[in-house]
Amino acid sequence: MTNKSSVEKLPIPSDPSEVEQFMKDRVGLGESFDLGIRKIKIHKKDVHIYSVNGLCDTNFIIQIIKELVELNDNENSHQDLYDLIQNRLLHQSVQPVKLMDELVDQLLSGLIVIVMEGETEAFAVDVRSYPGRQPDEPVTEKVVRGSRDGFVENIILNTGLTRLRIRDERLRFEILKVGERSKTDIAIGYVKDVANTDLIQIIREELEAINVDGLTMADKAVEEYLVKQGYNPYPLVRYTERADVAATHLLEGHVLIYVSTSPSVIITPTTYFHHLQHAEEYRQSPAVGTFIRWCRFLGVFGSLFLLPLWLLFVLEPSLLPEELKFIGPNEKSHIPIILQIFLSELGLMFLRLAAIHTPTPLATAMGLIAAVLIGQIAIDVGVFVPEVILYVAVSAMGTFSTPSYELGIANTLVKLVLLILVSIFKVPGLVIGFTLYLLFLANLRSFNSPYFWPFLPFSPRACLEILFRKSAPGSKIRPSIVQPKKRQKQSSSS
Amino acid sequence: MAEKEKLEQNQKEKPLSFMAMVILTGLIGGIFWSGLGYMAYLFNFTDVHPNVILEPWALGAWKKQWLGTVISIVLMGVLSIGVALVYYAVLKKMKSIFIGIGFGIGIFLLVFLVLNPIFPGIKPFRELSLNTIITSVCLYALYGAFVGYSISYEYQEQEYRENQEVREKEVTS
């Protein structure tokens, strides 16, 4: 890598044909069809314009070339070519380039590069127009009411959507390029006088330290470099595709990472409870939002512990208090309950996986087969007792009510481990499993922030804000988890 | 102006003082984990009912009823404030969550071995069922982590915040 960069640190030769030769040798001019060169003459000097089709807007380029060619008629030839061209480039974003590798980088990012005879500097003009879609409501984070513009794959549009919501002079987007071959744009977004300087510094250093060919899996790959989570299934950062959610977190003092080619933005630092919040809660009145949130907590809790508890009571019915003695399978089956649960959980996993990549016209058929045929017939044949289906279904609904897909899957994994523990060790298995689970979560850290905050370590006020969704004027303190520079939200009153 | 002050958005929220946070953590920790202990008792995970705390005193019949349960859970919370203050006084500088867990297990040993004779509701240690011991150890360990780790973390936060303010002043001046 060092060898390569030292070669490419060469300055731009003053003869455009040398540049052309370089392009042929190194960048594949003439070999790749998408790299193009347009040669014109201005005052009898060669001017070459390089472009990559597909990444730039042809109309702009035509305009610029037209203006340049007209120089021959309108200006006298004694003037300096460099100044003349700089003056006539009809674009707000024109940047002089001095080095060949910089030139190539810019060119392959979709800018056009103008090389002039007799000059050792070239111009890069930002006529980029990346292929992409328009902001659209994100499929994973829908709300009943609220803005429908979600992030897209274009980092410029994404930062634009954020800037639209925070017109603060202190909002910063630091951009850097990561990936030896992909040269992916990554922007660190934060509000300068709020976000924690140490956190920004850590993130910047971690991003700069990434040494990889390409980040084709964009944000997910970046996350794995940032948090180094190993085989811990819990998501240590939160993703959002909603611009309003991203802006809210910026104002709270979080640091956001925008990765080009991904419609999700990384929110750091994150806790377990961040994954349980959803924009919908904030689109309803505080009472309704609180109610929704409690239902959701109940669902998530159920998705984790309902099945292990039920299995425990099936294995040891003597544990049940008198009033709940009716719980438990009424029919006997030939297959142990634990096996039945695992089989149906496996079936559900199949269903989830299949649902992701089944073409929409076939999805209905798939649902029908899964629900009616497998569920009903399995009971009729006597493979499953009805209770297993009931509890597995309720616990699956709990998983679906988890707003974060990643958290839902991680919880499912933990549930399966708890089930195994219960089936082997009964009560001690469940109790010790529960304890270790909580302690494991409490001991996790995401960018130095405890993962299970504000429950463990306990923070009374933040816990209250998690339990009760406060009204917008009532929520005045930034969460201490981000260690903000200013704790009060309204800067005027501080 | 007076009108303006009354608006909810213009009222300032004072951050909790460290002492208030310790007391609240103790209270809520005691109530929460003894409440969970009561649930564990309901489902026969443990033989220890929270109202063993009331047993040394001769009280009315209510102490065996739901009122007794509620009062004992609240009482646990109050006692737990003392526990939190002890942790605050002695161990607040410890960073690890394991200190808190050890602290909790220490309290478990204290209650179940040393103070055992005071509570007629808790059988002598050797006669306790395995389920009871394991459930109690786990509850106490979680309780210890809850109180201990919270206080230690808040202590570090406080220090960090002071450092941050000092650094900010250096930058601005």
TrEMBL record, chain A:
Protein name per UniProt: Spore germination protein
Transmembrane residues, as ranges?
294-315, 335-355, 362-382, 416-439
Tell me what topology the record assigns in the membrane: Multi-pass membrane protein
Which protein family is named in the record? Belongs to the GerABKA family.
Q: Which UniProt keywords apply?
A: Membrane, Transmembrane, Transmembrane helix
Kindly report the protein's main subcellular placement as a broad class. membrane
A GO term from the CC aspect: plasma membrane
Q: Where found?
A: Cell membrane; Membrane
* Organism of this sequence: Robertmurraya kyonggiensis
What processes does the entry annotate via GO biological process terms? spore germination
**Entry-linked InterPro entries:** Spore_Ger, UPF0353/GerABKA_families
TrEMBL record, chain B:
- Tell me where on the tree of life, at the top rank, the source sits: Bacteria
For this UniProt record, the keywords arranged alphabetically read as follows: Membrane, Transmembrane, Transmembrane helix
Q: Which residues cross the membrane?
A: 21-46, 66-90, 97-118, 130-151
Q: Which InterPro entries match?
A: YqhR (IPR024563)
What is this protein called in UniProt? Uncharacterized protein
The protein's organism comes out as Robertmurraya kyonggiensis
